[in-house]
Amino acid sequence: MFETMFDSILRFAADVAVYNEFFTKGMAYLGAGLAVIAGLGPGIGQGFAAGKAAEAVGRQPEAQGKILVTTIVTQAVAETTGLYALVVAIMLINA
């Protein structure tokens, strides 16, 4: 009697483990997709910043050097957000 109960508990646990594995993997893919969508923000921000830098150079051509340096630094900082999102997505998929 106890052997049959133990067998049924083991079968149930095996079924739940398979279900949890698929559910966990599905949620990881969903999270990875959301993390990649987070890459849209830096792209929009970088485009906006580059446009404003071009306007600033058009208004004050003599300040081109300072504007260029500031723009490159801000573009690098904005890009790190997208790279972090990509790293999180890769970690979720391979976890």
* CATH level-1 class: Mainly Alpha
Question: What proportion of the residues form beta strands (DSSP E)?
Answer: under 5%
Shape assignment: rod-shaped
Count the strands?
Answer: 0
- Sheet/helix structural class: mainly alpha
Note poorly predicted spans: none
Q: How many domain modules?
A: 1
Number of H/I helices: 3
Q: How does the major sheet shape up?
A: none
Radius of gyration: 25 Å
SSE run: HHH
What is the rounded distance between the termini? 40 Å
CATH architecture descriptor text: Up-down Bundle
The share of residues in helices is over 70%
List the helices and strands and how they pair.
Layout: H1 2-37, H2 40-59, H3 64-94
Helix pairs in contact: 1-3, 2-3
Give an overview of the whole structure.
By secondary structure, the chain is mainly α. It has a single domain, classed as F1F0 ATP synthase subunit C (F1FO ATP Synthase, Up-down Bundle), CATH 1.20.20. Helices cover 92% and strands 0% of the residues. The longest helix is centred in the N-terminal third of the chain and has 36 residues, at 2-37. The two termini are 40 Å apart. The mean pLDDT is 82.
Quick rundown:
This protein is mostly helical. The protein has helices spanning 2-37, 40-59, 64-94. The protein has a single domain (2-94), classed as F1FO ATP Synthase, CATH 1.20.20.
